[in-house]
Amino acid sequence: MLIELWRKETVEQYSVTPCVICGNDFELGSVFPMVYGDRGQELGEMCPVCLDYLDRRRADVDDPTLGNWPARNWPTLKDLEEARRRFPEPMFETSDDMCAFAVDFEADERLTRETILWPMEREKV
Ligand SMILES: [Zn+2]
């Protein structure tokens, strides 16, 4: 499982969503954890409580049987809180503002880079 930190794109985007891990509704905030399978299959948004809970797996980091284990590079709850402090607002007010910014391929690429604050590499087979 891969966990990235994403900035919320617009103020008008939905602000409450169920966590893909525990199913509880939670407030997305200005930055939220986004969960993928190891090969990039999108699973959904994850709540901060689950992020904190899964962080405990990091205690197993020295286990030699876990050779390819993405948990090593997961962000922590502290990383999420720090990102929310740095970026307290969504990137744009409205989707019109966002479309006005992403006028061409290059601007769209830049937008994606700025949205994903904590990217993780997909596993290559
Ligand atoms: Zn959860």
Keywords:
single chain; 125 residues; alpha+beta; four-stranded antiparallel β-sheet; two-stranded antiparallel ribbon; 28% helix; globular; binds zinc ion
What does this structure look like?
The protein has 4 helices and 6 strands; from the N terminus they run βββββααααβ. It has 125 residues and is α+β, with helices and mostly antiparallel strands. It has a 4-stranded antiparallel β-sheet with strand order 5-4-1-6. A hairpin with a 6-residue loop joins strand 2 and strand 3. The longest helix is centred in the last third of the chain and has 11 residues. The two termini are 15 Å apart. Bound molecules: zinc ion.
Order of helices and strands: EEEEEHHHHE
Number of domains: 1
Strand arrangement, major sheet: 5-4-1-6
Mean pLDDT: 92
Computed structural class:
alpha+beta
Main sheet record = 4 strands, antiparallel
**Shape verdict:** globular
Helix content: 25-40%
Total count of helical runs of at least 4 residues: 4
User: Whole-number radius of gyration?
Assistant: 15 Å
Share in β-strands = 15-25%
End-to-end separation = 15 Å
Count of beta strands:
6
Could you name the ranges where pLDDT drops below 50 across 5 or more consecutive residues? none
The hetero compounds bound to this protein are: zinc ion
